[in-house]
């Protein structure tokens, strides 16, 4: 079954979609036969330009530019940190009520670690698990996943940085077969209008269902 992104926002300069978990953004991320870029291009009937990334396993707000000029402007905004991003993550452990993780992250090419900051706020607790909101101030690879691991609170469903026993528990008990990380909102200046816009993506049904079950308890 093909994973299909749903349209959230469109202007003369950009288009934003709600990307499902399991769908790579473009061919540089995977060798899958289909990617978000092609699906969005076919939906809007125009060439689209990627301006930021979401991990394949992460769902939520994903933005493409509709021209090279808009791509340059949006890419610069992401690089300068003038785009506000918020995520929700279901984690194992007992995170602080609020913390800013200021922890440099190493790179795959062996270069010196890069500065990385993520604001973490706990929104709900469910015994051994918690729902947190993450606001990254920088955009390093796997930043939220790695910073939550640094707090000893790995994300449920994270096969690289998480815990297999907890991932298996959520697959068995809640039929959750994905990374529990969702990009809930993104705020940026639309190059077409100059106005600041906030684009929101609702929680996917499988995450919503899991959170409701955790709220009910055993």
> Order of helices and strands, N to C?
EEHEEHEEEEHHEEH
Regarding CATH, which class? Alpha Beta
- Look up the CATH topology: Pseudouridine synthase
Average of the residue pLDDT scores: 93
Q: Kindly provide the radius of gyration, computed on alpha-carbon positions and rounded to a whole number of angstroms.
A: 17 Å
How would you portray this structure in words?
This protein is an alpha+beta fold and 218 residues long. It has a single domain, classed as Pseudouridine synthase. 24% of the residues lie in helices and 30% in strands. It contains five helices and ten strands; from the N terminus they run E-E-H-E-E-H-E-E-E-E-H-H-E-E-H. Strands 1, 2, 3, 4, 5, 6, 7, 8, 9 and 10 form a ten-stranded mixed beta sheet that branches. The longest helix has 13 residues. It is globular and about 50 Å long. It starts with 5 loop residues before the first strand and ends with a helix. The relative contact order is 0.17.
Give a nutshell description of this structure.
With 218 residues, this protein is of the alpha+beta class. It has helices spanning 36-44, 68-80, 143-150, 164-174, 205-216; strands at residues 6-10, 14-19, 49-50, 59-65, 84-92, 98-102, 117-126, 129-136, 181-189, 196-200.
Q: Mind sketching the topology for me?
A:
Layout: E1 6-10, E2 14-19, H1 36-44, E3 49-50, E4 59-65, H2 68-80, E5 84-92, E6 98-102, E7 117-126, E8 129-136, H3 143-150, H4 164-174, E9 181-189, E10 196-200, H5 205-216
Parallel strand pairs: 4-9
Antiparallel strand pairs: 1-2, 2-4, 3-4, 5-8, 5-9, 6-7, 7-8, 9-10
